[in-house]
Amino acid sequence: MAQSRLEKIGTIFTRIQGLLRGGAMKAEDKPIWYDVYAAFPPKLEPRYDRPASNLPIRRIFYAEDVVRAKLHKQNRPNETISLTDHRRNTQSQQFVQLYENLRSQGALDEQRIYETTLDLLAEQRQQLRSEERADDNLGTLPSDELETNKSSLLNDFQQAEEQQTTTPTSTPGKAKKEGVGINIDSLFKD
């Protein structure tokens, strides 16, 4: 029984048990679940030939699933979702939260709540976009300041180039004393 890997011959537990008894598997190599299974065996042994139960599969739907399905059916959200970002809610999560808030107030019927929630979500997206644009504009300089910064940077490079061409760097000690940049000969010296 231990040599076969067929599921029809015994269970995974009996096969591991046979490997341990026969010495083909060391005790330290046994699976983590083995001791738990041995201490608490199931009521019915999990064999391949055991008949399946005739219990009907229950359909599990939450109230928000119906709302989310309606949203995705009529308005396809076009966003990129990062599964590692737990701080930000997706558009469908935001929609369900807004929908539940409006429904808890109880003033409108279901269709009207849906339409109002779509409008509120669109307004929120618009506000986020305008805030992002404002943040981007704060990070950039006006065009006249940008031009002056470019020209001053260009002037700085030109002045540095003139200083390097006019200052002779014949001896490494002299260059260090005058503070005129880096001596390249000493950098690549073996």
TrEMBL record:
UniProt region (Disordered), positions on chain: 127-190
Residue ranges constituting the Small ribosomal subunit protein mS23 conserved domain according to the UniProt record: 2-125
Biased composition (Low complexity): 158-172
One biological process term in Gene Ontology: translation
Organism: Drosophila albomicans (Fruit fly)
Compartment(s): Mitochondrion
Entry keyword Acyltransferase: no
Basic and acidic residues bias spans: 127-136
Gene Ontology annotations for the cellular component aspect, listed alphabetically: mitochondrion; ribosome
Claim: Ribosomal protein is one of the keywords in the record: yes
Protein name: Small ribosomal subunit protein mS23
InterPro entries from the UniProt entry: mS23_dom, mS23_dom_met, Ribosomal_mS23_met
Keywords associated with the record: Mitochondrion, Ribonucleoprotein, Ribosomal protein
GO molecular function: structural constituent of ribosome
Pfam families membership: MRP-S23 (PF10484)
Family: Belongs to the mitochondrion-specific ribosomal protein mS23 family.
Cross-referenced CDD domains: At1g26750 (cd23701)
Superkingdom field: Eukaryota
